[in-house]
Design brief:
Number of helices: 6
Distance between the termini: 26 Å
Radius of gyration: 20 Å
Strand order of the largest sheet: 1-10-9-3-2-15-16
Structural class: alpha+beta
Helix content: 10-25%
Order of helices and strands: EHEEEEEHEHEEEHEEHEEHEE
Strand content: 25-35%
C-alpha cells in the first residue's frame, strides 16, 4: 500500500467557511469538533466508490455505475476488503483516507430478524464512502493539512481550495411548515406503557423510545447545518451529503467509540 501524500497548507480559516464549497462536491462529509472536545476537523468528498444498504438490498456505486451485490453478501465483509487498500494513518494525523459514513440501527434488522418501523428517516440503513483525499484542521494549532492517495489528486484539490476559501454561503434554509410526528399522542402513550412493562418484567434495562418528525423545506441543508453549528457548538458534529439530494446533519454531546494509539477501539 503506497504512503499517502501529506501537505501542509497555508490557509487560515475555520472549517465551517469551507462547507458551502465542499457541499457542492460529490458526497461531501464533514466531521467537526467543538471548542473543548477535540483537536481536529476533517473534511472530505468525492469517494471513489460507495456502499449502500437499504433493507435487503446491498449495492455498490463506482464510476457512476451501480451494482447490486448477491443476497448472501455482508456489508462489513465488503468494507473490510475495501479498507485493505488503505495504509494506516500516522499517529500525527487522525485520517489519511479510507472509509467514512454512517451505520444505522436498521442495518442490523435483517441479521437480528427485527421488523423495521413503518415510518422512518428516508435515508439508507448503512452508507459508506471510500474516500481518497481529506482536509484536516488542527484546531489548537490553526494548521491545515491536505492528504491524498496521489500527487495528482493533491494538486487538483489544492487548485479547488484556492476558490473554495472565497466562496459565498449556500442558499438559505427555511422550513415551509412546522414539524409533524409519525406517531400521535395516543400511540406514543401505548408504546411508553409497553416500555414500562418490559422494564418491570426484567426483559430489558434501557429503551430509547424515539419518534420520527418531518417537515418540508427550501434552500440548502448545509445552510441549516452551519446555522445550527454556530448557534449550538456541539462537542461532535457531522454533515454528510447522500444520494438523491439527501443529507444527514448530526450534533452529539459525546462520541460512542474511541481508538487508542495502538488502533484498538473502545
Amino acid at each position: 500500500m503506497p504512503s499517502p501524500v501529506i501537505e501542509t497548507l497555508s490557509i487560515d480559516c475555520p472549517a465551517l467557511k469551507l462547507l458551502p464549497a465542499l457541499a457542492a462536491r460529490r458526497f461531501p462529509l464533514a466531521l467537526l469538533s467543538g471548542h473543548h472536545s477535540g483537536d481536529w476537523d476533517i473534511l472530505m468528498a468525492d469517494p471513489v466508490r460507495t456502499l449502500c444498504q437499504q433493507g435487503n438490498t446491498l449495492s455498490v456505486m463506482e464510476a457512476e455505475q451501480t451494482q447490486t451485490l448477491p443476497a448472501d453478501s455482508h456489508a462489513f465483509a465488503v468494507l473490510d476488503d475495501w479498507q485493505q487498500a488503505h495504509s494506516r494513518a500516522p499517529q500525527s494525523l487522525p485520517f489519511t483516507g479510507g472509509l467514512a459514513g454512517f451505520c444505522g440501527y436498521e442495518s442490523l434488522h435483517n441479521t437480528l430478524q427485527i421488523t423495521a418501523p413503518a415510518h422512518g428517516p428516508a435515508v439508507p440503513d448503512l452508507w459508506m464512502g471510500d474516500y481518497r483525499w481529506a482536509l484536516l484542521h488542527h484546531r489548537r494549532d490553526h494548521q491545515w493539512y491536505l492528504v491524498a492517495d496521489t500527487a495528482e489528486r493533491a494538486t487538483a484539490i489544492q487548485q479547488w481550495l484556492t476558490h473554495a476559501v472565497s466562496q459565498t454561503g449556500a442558499a438559505p434554509f427555511q422550513l415551509r411548515s412546522t414539524f409533524t410526528g409519525s406517531t400521535d399522542q395516543t400511540h406514543y402513550r401505548q408504546a411508553f406503557a409497553r416500555v414500562q412493562a418490559y422494564l418491570q418484567a426484567g426483559d430489558c434495562y434501557q429503551v430509547n423510545l424515539a419518534r420520527h418528525f418531518a417537515a418540508p423545506y427550501s434552500g440548502s441543508p448545509v445552510s441549516a447545518f452551519m446555522a445550527l453549528a454556530q448557534a449550538h457548538s456541539a462537542p461532535y458534529s457531522a454533515y454528510m451529503g447522500l444520494p438523491d439530494n439527501k443529507a444527514v446533519l448530526s450534533f452529539s454531546p459525546e462520541s460512542f467509540l474511541h481508538m487508542d494509539a495502538n488502533g484498538h477501539i473502545h
